[in-house]
Specification:
alpha+beta; Glutamine Phosphoribosylpyrophosphate, subunit 1, domain 1; eight-stranded mixed beta sheet; four-stranded antiparallel beta sheet; about 30% helix
Length: about 300
């Protein structure tokens, strides 16, 4: 028997100009949603899915209805869920008409013989798996549409809102581990661009023998080094926090000033978070059910 644990993140970035209380309330609600599943005896996979859905539904975060718009003013979303029991995953990329991509990613893993679907094919699969489609315009938040229009008028792409990919990691009562990662991608991205988030080993990874991780940040850098696989492999010699910082130290040694963050859950139940950015909202639940949150993590 293991002590259930869960941690979520709302994305690594500057988070300047945001109501930090509202941002932290959002990650607390997500962690509590996952914890409710674990407390009832649910699996780690069920918990990370349940924790990610509220983040996809909250326009404060770059996932689901809060997704950044691409260069054409469209939402294109990526998601990944991993199961440490048998090193399985389900992933989707560039989906445009699925309200909660993490739900589709899990169905890819559990209800198909495949691992990864993209674009129109992923949206078509959603219908076949019983997930209703929504219009792409329904996925566009008022704030993101206003920002897109401002970019069109100014003909200059700003640095962005300072938010990032969302995710969750968990261990259940049976000691099984899982991770989930979901994103709308980068601000003003090229149509069809896909980052690390749906890439197994990069945006997320889980192995019951070691642990689970979810990443956030600039995907082009994260996937080059399979950052989540690296940090999980490091759990063989360190606890979750130490392994997370070691992975980011490695990334920083290879890429000056990388924008990245990680949350990690070890097979020993340890939790850890690390980021190179100014902030990364996280929340976790103590063994007594107390929900904790922080906007910034230090060594």
């Amino acid at each position: 028997m293991a002590t259930p644990k869960i941690m979520v993140h709302g994305g690594a970035g500057s988070w300047q100009g945001f109501d930090e209380d509202a941002v932290l309330d959002g990650v607390r609600a997500a962690a509590l949603a996952g914890w409710t599943v674990l407390k009832a005896g649910g699996t780690a996979v069920e918990a990370v899915e349940a924790a990610t859905i509220p983040l996809e539904d909250n326009p404060l975060y770059d996932a689901g209805v809060g997704s950044f718009l691409n260069e054409l003013g469209e939402v294109e979303m990526d998601a990944l869920i991993t199961d440490g029991r048998d090193i399985r995953f389900g992933a989707v990329a560039a989906v445009r008409r699925v309200k909660n991509p993490i739900i589709l990613a899990r169905k890819v893993m559990t209800e198909t013989d495949n691992c990864f679907f993209a674009g129109d094919g992923a949206d078509m699969l959603a219908v076949q798996l019983g997930i209703p489609l929504v219009s792409n315009i329904a996925m566009i938040s008022d704030a993101e549409w206003a920002a897109f229009q401002a970019r069109q008028m100014a003909e200059v792409v700003p640095a962005g809102h300072g938010t990032g990919t969302v995710g969750a990691v968990a261990i259940d009562v049976d000691g099984h581990l899982a991770s989930a990662t979901s994103t709308g991608g980068t601000l003003n991205k090229k149509k069809g661009r896909v980052g690390d988030s749906p890439i197994f080993g990069a945006g997320g990874y889980a192995d019951d023998l070691l642990g689970a991780a979810s990443a956030t940040g600039i995907g082009e850098n994260i996937m080059r080094f399979l950052l989540c696989k690296r940090v999980v492999d490091g759990l063989g010699q360190a606890d979750a926090s130490t392994a997370a910082w070691a992975a980011l130290d490695f990334l920083t040694s290879r890429i000056p000033k990388p924008e990245a963050g990680l949350i990690v859950c070890g097979a020993d139940g340890s939790l850890g978070a690390a980021h190179t950015t100014a902030a990364m909202p996280i929340a976790w639940v103590n063994a007594d059910g107390t929900v904790q949150a922080a906007m910034r993590t230090r060594r």
